[in-house]
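Give me the 3D structure for SWIM-type domain-containing protein.
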Amino acid sequence: MSTGTLPVRADLRALDADALAALANRGLVKRASREVEREPPRLSADGPAIVAEFSDGVRASLPEGGLEQGRCSCGATGVCRHLIALILAYQTASVPAPAASAGSPAGLPAGSSEAAEPARDEPSGMPSSPAQVAAPAGPTAPASPPERDAWSPGVFTDDDLTARIGARLVATARRAERAGYTARVRRGPVPVVELPAATVRFLVPHDLGYVHTDARAGVRDDVIALAVWAFRTADDQQPDTADCVVDVGGSGVGAATGSGLEALVEFAAEVLRGGAVHSGAGLAATAAGHLTALERAGLRWPLDAATELAGQLTAYRDRSARYSPELLADLLAEIFARHRAAGVEGGAAARARVLGSEEAAETPLRRVRLDGLGARVTAIDDERRIEIFHGQPASGVVLVSHRQWTTPDDGPALARRRLAGTTVAAVAAGTLVTESAVRNASRAVRLSASRVAKSTVTASNGAWDGLPDGLLIHDYARLAADLDAMPPRPVRARVRAELVRVLAIAEVGPAHYSPGAQRLTVEIRDVHGNTATVVATHAAVAPGRLDAVAAALDGRRGRPRYVAGSVHRSGGRVVIDPYAIAADGPTVIPDLATPDAFTASTPTDTLNPTASAAVPASSAVPGTSADGHGPEAGVPGAPAGVEVWDGGDGTEVLAAAVAAARDVLAEAAHSGLAHLPPAYANRLGNARNVLARVGLHRVASALDEVSARLSPDPGFDAANAWADAYLRVSLAADLL
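Predicted structure for SWIM-type domain-containing protein (736 residues):
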């Protein structure tokens, strides 16, 4: 690197390795770093632009305004390694302060990197006097960017946005703002806004040239304006909250009134009156018309629910095992719930959150890195479906890809099937880097086939410590509070894997196996001593699930560090259904493991290799010691080294009462309110009495309303009463 006079570029100094990897890709950054260490380019200045001349004759120039403004003679389209090398070489160069007496701390030479670092309180992007650049004596790692304080992108003006994305996209964003939208704002040195269509990160303070979105470049650049406006709202409403959700806009003239679901609710009431048993081809045609109308209106969550409802009606007519009376009832009640929630006075943003009207149908993603967080295998007849969960470190969002086959294979056999140029098991446990991913509104990701945009998968050892807070959980108590604060399930966004989290394990407690339920229960603790419960239930399509969970948590695969899975609250506890467990070795995917892969030569006495003190069984699993039954040994199917209890499921009285009421109400959706059998009123009354005896009087009174409106020709009021009762029972079940 030659000696020359270079301008001070705060934007280039602010870019760390992660930011460069987001703007380009990690492989390109590593290659450029090696080239700079081996033979740094010659740097010079062309006004505010930095110019790099390489030994092979390539010349790169980077003016202000972001990497997209860079030019390189190598001929590569987009960001090339020469532009990355230019930035790394500039960061490596020592930029001495203009005067040691004025700016250098005592005892530091004027040419030292410490003295050369620009003052942190200097506004980013402000012109500075040029500094002399000294060539390094030898290969030197790029200087670490100076530490930065949290800042707000809300300071950007609309003129700044117009200059960055153009007037047309600002107008597009204004239309979305008038309709209202919801955003999650995370403050910090790198502010992040999670929008329905994309996640936006502001990598360089006070510079719109270095904004990164996970949407493909040029597809949804309007999200930059939406993110800035979200920060403005957060700065006004919750200025001291580091992580918050805000409703933006929604006060435009001509905002929609009502829910927009009136016709769909009438259809749901018609289905409820006739039941799945009496649904015919005419209802299928009617459902298709509603789906078209919802698609045209952009109401994503009702569209998703109505699509599932139509699928359930078709499954019943085809006598398919995919049909479930409980799922049918859930979908009907959800349509009523969304209609009611969207119709109340809460602003257009709240309405959009309930209806999903702010969601794009699909968003093509730019080059993204996705960490495999495990898989779940399910079977219906000969159909096998596998869902693979991907954590996106850049945004903290969990995406889901899925495949389906008609085959009798189980999980271990499906693990060997091909996907994205490798195997299902490799994708579920590895790191996927792809340029061909398309994300839909439900956060399902589709990997499109492309000869140009290839996907690569590398092995991972479960190093999930780089995942952001919110996805990686170190404090189980905080997770419990977050779960308790969530809106009711029937009106939440229909996001797949919305409850998938990665829990850091500080200590493993005792384990129990219930032969009747074929369920393994293991207690884990965080660094604060808070507990969570890992619960895995046997399934024929995943024959090695329980053995794999037991082996991964008892130390046979090394010290267990993380467990990824779906979390919920039950009995006041945090419960996680495991999809993957990271120990010292390769990541364990229970659903894809073979039954004999984790056989232990010597059964262990406890699943607690690191705990300093044993935890009583009664404190880990309520109900397992209060039934008066003791542990057994040698029960077939029990994981090695796990205590076996014959105390049954330990189902609580409240849960049993709620489950019985739910089944009775689901029967009404199956048979139809107009076609109920003569004994139905007695069963409904019995369920009501049980609810009252256990103290759930408001839920019981809702069943009274259903009983009062039963008739041979039930009207809309009967359907409304059924929806009231089912929603109360369903929410009670979620809260237990």
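The longest helix spans residues 716-735. Let me know if you want a second pass.
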